[in-house]
């Protein structure tokens, strides 16, 4: 199932990302950023666009492990000594992504200043998010899990703006994230739209409203 690193945790205060150093690269929609099994010498910071992570195990189809957006990191497992990429990263849309060498990031973390404190807090919150996600899988319905995914993608899972727009994601990808079928995601999305929780803007975006939180209380 999905890993929640980044989805509920934004690294605030780095809108340009310049403080992190590294080089900004630009990716097209559906372009590979790296593939599972490749050497892991760097991590990445999303400045524009979005990224999908998928993981494939032997004799099993690839599973979506995360959908990430602006101000999220990915590839951070290299900091813990993991020598290879554990997933494949693909741009969800046209994206600008900062590549930061592992050695440079470790130097930043050792400085013990405001930047390193923010980075450490982000990484620790990622561990908490994973634990929370496991709890959700055990206690929530498929509809509730889908609502949480949409709220997190829009960063509305906590206090914030009333409405936010996210890139439109296929129902099959959402189904893979939630752990259900595309048909059930279709059903839930139509239900959310009828209740005014979401709205398709006619383009490539999906409007998510804070009122979607009401679906978390449904039975």
Characteristic key phrases:
single chain; 219 residues; alpha+beta; Jelly Rolls; Arc Repressor Mutant, subunit A; four-stranded antiparallel sheet; 31% helix
Tell me what you see in this structure.
- The protein is an alpha+beta fold.
- It is globular, with a radius of gyration of 17 Å.
- α3 crosses α4.
- It has two domains: 18-132, Jelly Rolls (Sandwich); 140-217, Winged helix-like DNA-binding domain superfamily/Winged helix DNA-binding domain (Arc Repressor Mutant, subunit A).
- It contains five helices and eleven strands.
- Helices cover 31% and strands 24% of the residues.
- A four-stranded antiparallel sheet has the order 1-8-3-6. It has a four-stranded antiparallel sheet with strand order 2-7-4-5.
Outline type = globular
- Helix/sheet category: alpha+beta
Total beta strands: 11
Write down the CATH topology of the largest domain: Jelly Rolls
CATH 4th-level superfamily of the largest domain: Jelly Rolls
Portion in beta strands: 15-25%
The DSSP helix count reads 5
| Count of separate structural domains | 2
- CATH class value of the largest domain: Mainly Beta
The biggest sheet amounts to: 4 strands, antiparallel
Cα separation of the termini = 23 Å
Mean pLDDT: 82
Low-confidence spans: 1-9
The CATH architecture classification of the largest domain is Sandwich
Give the fraction of residues assigned to helices: 25-40%
The sequence of SSEs as H and E is: EEEEEEEEHHHEHHEE
| Major β-sheet strand ordering | 1-8-3-6
Radius of gyration: 17 Å
